[in-house]
Amino acid sequence: MPVQFISVEQRQNYGRYAGEPSSYELTRYFHLNDTDLNAIAKKRGDHNRLGFASQLTTVRFLGTFLEDPTDVSNAVLQTLGRQLHIQDLGILSRYKGAKQRWEHIVEIRSRYGFKDWNEPEIGFRLTRWLYALCWTGTEQASVLFDRATVWMLSNKVILPGCTTLERFVAKLRSRVETRLWLRLGQNITVEQRRRLED
Length: 198
Description:
two-stranded parallel ribbon
């Protein structure tokens, strides 16, 4: 099976904003509850408060932290700015070079329970779940890729790189296919095997 099986569009949208979030997505992923607001209030400076909120809501929505934390859509900035009572949204540019952004990533991961996908328990659960899907279904690898992404988002798992997940799905699917062929071929007679090979 080829390792690169997802579409160009899937690859481009993986872990990135694909246009403006809908009003439903803004409400669901970018709403700051009291716990969020209490954590944000402890940050010094509006740029740090807006940056922390941006990183927190982005990882909830996309499943990953952006390389450039200022690379968020205008709708997201306006939604966060309204909730934090910050008028000047341009101050987020100061956050990009600040060392606090890295400390905020560590804090968000710890405080909100985000995990790495290669932690043993997470890897085991994901592998077992995907293996069952492969064994009982006939879904294409790209569908399994999407389902794995959704599973990780719903379980607060930081998404790995696109090609890493692609290789993981391809390897797992190959294991299932090998097991299937071994089970199908284990009880055939020598004559049946010869005829099949012919």
